[in-house]
Specification:
The protein is α+β, with helices and mostly antiparallel strands and about 220 residues long. It has 5 helices and 8 strands; from the N terminus they run αααβββββββαβα. Strands 1-2-3-4-5-6-7-8 form an 8-stranded antiparallel sheet. It is elongated.
C-alpha cells in the first residue's frame, strides 16, 4: 500500500516545476503520514522500546536569500531509535557570504538558530531510505560590518522562530557512505517582515553523505 501511494505521488508531480515539486512532496507526504496516524504512532512507540544509538550528523541545506544562493550548515546530535525515529537538537548557521543590498558599508548577513528535531523514516528497502525530518528553530539574523575605526558593528538584529519540514532520501553506496537528496521549505513563523521575506525559502539537498552513525556502530559492535 505504501509503495503504491509513493508511485502515485511521483506520477502526479512529474509535470511540476522543481520548486513546486519539492513543496508538493513535503506536503503530500505529511498528509500521507497523517492519514496513517495509527500506524505512524505505533511505529514510533515500538521504536522507543529499542536501545538508542548516537545520532551525530553534519549536514548542509541549500536555499535562497534575497534571490542569492545560500548554504546552511547544521550540526545535529541526538538519539536514533531502531533506525526509525531520530530525536535531538542541532545548531545551524548561514555559511554563504550575502551582503545587504544597496548598502555602502558592505554589511554582511549573519543567520543562526538552535533546532530541536524529529526525523521519522517511513520507508526502508535494501539500499534505499526515505524520511521526513521536521525541526523548529530559535535564533536570530543580523548584519555586521567593520566601521571606519576598525570596530565590529551589528545592526538590524531580529529574533526569529522558524519551521522546517522536508523530505529526504538516501541511497547507500557502501555501508558508511550514501547519496543524499531532499526537498522542503523554511518558513519564518515569528520574526520581522524583513526576516520573513528574506529567509522564508524552499530548501533542496543533494550531497554525498558520510554516515557517521554507521561508522560508530561498526566500531562499537561486539564481535560474535
Amino acid at each position: 500500500m505504501a509503495e503504491e501511494r509513493i508511485r502515485a505521488m511521483i506520477k502526479i508531480s512529474l509535470p511540476m516545476p522543481f520548486i513546486v515539486k519539492g513543496i508538493f512532496f513535503v506536503l503530500l507526504l505529511q498528509f500521507f503520514v497523517g492519514n496513517s496516524n495509527a500506524q505512524f504512532l505505533d511505529s514510533i512507540k515500538t521504536s522507543f522500546n529499542y536501545k538508542p544509538t548516537v545520532d551525530f550528523r553534519i549536514d548542509t541545506r541549500n536555499s535562497f536569500i534575497t534571490h542569492f544562493y545560500a548554504r546552511i550548515i547544521g550540526i545535529k546530535l541526538g538519539l536514533d531509535f531502531n533506525k526509525t525515529v531520530k530525536v535531538g537538537v542541532g545548531y545551524n548557521w548561514l555559511s554563504s557570504e550575502i551582503y545587504k543590498q544597496n548598502d555602502k558599508n558592505n554589511a554582511q548577513l549573519k543567520f543562526w538558530y538552535l533546532s530541536p528535531y524529529l526525523e521519522y523514516t517511513f520507508y526502508r528497502k535494501e539500499k534505499w531510505e526515505l524520511s521526513i525530518p521536521v525541526l523548529l528553530g530559535f535564533g536570530s539574523s543580523f548584519y555586521e560590518r567593520i566601521n571606519s575605526t576598525g570596530h565590529l558593528v551589528i545592526t538590524d538584529k531580529h529574533f526569529m522562530t522558524l519551521y522546517e519540514p522536508y523530505m529526504t532520501g538516501q541511497y547507500k553506496i557502501i555501508p558508511w557512505m550514501g547519496l543524499g537528496f531532499g526537498v522542503g521549505y523554511r518558513l519564518i513563523i515569528i520574526g520581522s517582515k524583513e526576516s520573513y521575506s528574506q529567509l522564508s525559502s524552499p530548501i533542496y539537498v543533494l550531497k554525498i553523505k558520510v554516515l557517521l552513525g554507521e561508522i560508530y556502530r561498526s566500531m562499537t559492535r561486539k564481535p560474535k
